Amino acid sequence: MTDINQMTLEQLEEAVRSCTLCSLHQGRTHAVPGEGPPGADIMFIGEGPGFHEDRQGRPFVGAAGKFLEELLASIGMTREQVYIANVVKCRPPGNRDPLTDELSACDPYLERQIQLVKPKVIVTLGRFSMYRYFPGAAISKIHGQPKRVGSTLVVPMFHPAAALHQPKWRPLVEADFKKLPGFIAEAESLGDEKPPPQAQQLSLF
Hints:
Number of helices: 9
CATH architecture: 3-Layer(aba) Sandwich
CATH topology: Uracil-DNA Glycosylase, subunit E
Oligomer: single chain
């Protein structure tokens, strides 16, 4: 097998579909590598496939995916313009939380996706995605507040499913999405600037 760090997006997606690195492969219908164009301005990182995603092998195709497409339309973007991935590539049984060994098994795939896509903005959707960049943080306190990681801005947001299950979060999700064009512009201005010694919280608005 080709070293993950040498793979193209297409090779990586094929590797994910046949992956047996953790026990999640035993119960999957389809692995869900992720989808979108290299060079996408925005990369969304969710938690893991649900029922519909497992059946279709595509990320965010259920009700949360439909809401995500509505949110993108609100800022003049389409699903085809962004890259969508998850921290785990196969559905955990009963939609339970992913386990540490499952997250570890999938992490090299996700890291390589980030390297290949080179997004200006990474949006984390859900707790386990958020914890990659904001360990132990509470989404209710940090949502919509970007952190610089190199020349990329990482923005934690409520998962679209959370807004569907708890309508009180929906206005916050919609408001955070409206900030994304500004974050893209901010990340573009970072360009090849020398990154600070440590990733720093930015106050952009």
